[in-house]
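Hello, quick one for you while I still have it in my head. A protein chain has come my way and I'm curious about its shape. I'm sending you its amino acid sequence along with the backbone structure tokens. I'd be grateful if you could look everything over and explain what you see. Here's the protein in full, and shout if anything looks odd to you:
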Amino acid sequence: MIRIHYVDPDGNTTTLNVPDGQNLMQAAVQNGIDGIVGECGGSLVCATCHCYVDPARLSELNPPTEEELELLEEVAAQRKDNSRLSCQIKASAALDNLSITTPETQY
């Protein structure tokens, strides 16, 4: 299991043990993490799983696809350099102890 730290906008942290290969949106929704909606179920059409990845670890992720970059243009909360869609981040041993922060809103 991979430890992923979900940080809400107030700084409260919930740590989940996520199975290798599961995307971080699915793990959040299955465990009731506030701030990650995942309306489209991870099919890359809604952007309601927007998150901010720890900038120090951003380079450890696969780069975003063109489709993800297009959706990030439409996010409700401020887009930042470390903005990603959590449905596009799969848990792996390399990402153990990764922190992602949920935005103030997804709508």
In short: The chain has a mean pLDDT of 98. The domain at 2-101 is CATH 3.10.20.30 (Ubiquitin-like (UB roll)). The CA atoms of residues 61 and 89 lie 7 Å apart.
